[in-house]
Amino acid sequence: MKGRWRWAPMLARTVVPRAAGLAAAAGLVLGGCSGSGGNGGPGEPAAVVLSCGSAAGQQGPGQPPARIAGGISGFVGDTNAYDTLPVFGRIDGHRYLVWKAALAVAPGARGGRTIRVLSPGWARIAYGKPPLRAATQIRMPACGPRYTLFTGGILVRRPACVRLAVSGPGVAAVTVAVPVLVSRRCTAGDRAGSG
Do residues 132 and 89 touch, judged by C-beta distance below 8 A? Predict the structure, then answer.
């Protein structure tokens, strides 16, 4: 091509794909930050099933203060009531904060494990690769010879003792309580939504 249009093929090969890539990346970032991507509709958060591709990798079991409950290592809480947590986004018109707390599924957890929020009723969990999906129940697989690590966290509106149930095929459910911005230790019997 000659004349003033000779730059058009170069533009089509470089600038257009880059602009499309930037637009796609911006959509992922904004979608991941909104916190509304995984909601199954008003009042009905989706149950999420993760795959091995959603895992951050393999590791050994967590060290204290991490706890192992029902074949999952983690459940480290935040007992500093003065911490500032990042905002996850809005879900059903409510602002949620996220307590980032990775969980790892034991290699012997045949059939994976399901984590379900018991209380408070407004609490959510979000794990896997971004954009994270808020849910009240998440299924995590065991994916290899070591603990399978999933990044994410517990979503709260305000300080709370969040009670979670961990269950799996042929395994009795185990209840674990995680303090989030609560200045005391939570117990599995805690039913109050805040400290």
Answer: no
Examine residue 30 and state whether it is found in any structural domain, yes or no: no
Please indicate, yes or no, if residue 187 is contained in any of the structural domains: no
Q: Can you give the pTM of this predicted structure?
A: 0.72
Q: Is position 26 within any domain?
A: no
Show Cβ contacts of residue 84 under 8 Å, excluding neighbours closer than 6 positions. Answer: none
Phi, psi of 28 (to 5 degrees): -65, -45
CA dist 171 → 12, 54, 163, 167, 184 (Å): 57, 23, 18, 6, 30
Q: Is residue 13 part of a domain?
A: no
Encode pLDDT of 136-192 as tens digits.
999 999 999 999 999 999 999 999 999 999 999 988 999 999 999 988 888 766 654
Which is nearest to 134 in space by CA: 46, 54, 49, 73? 46
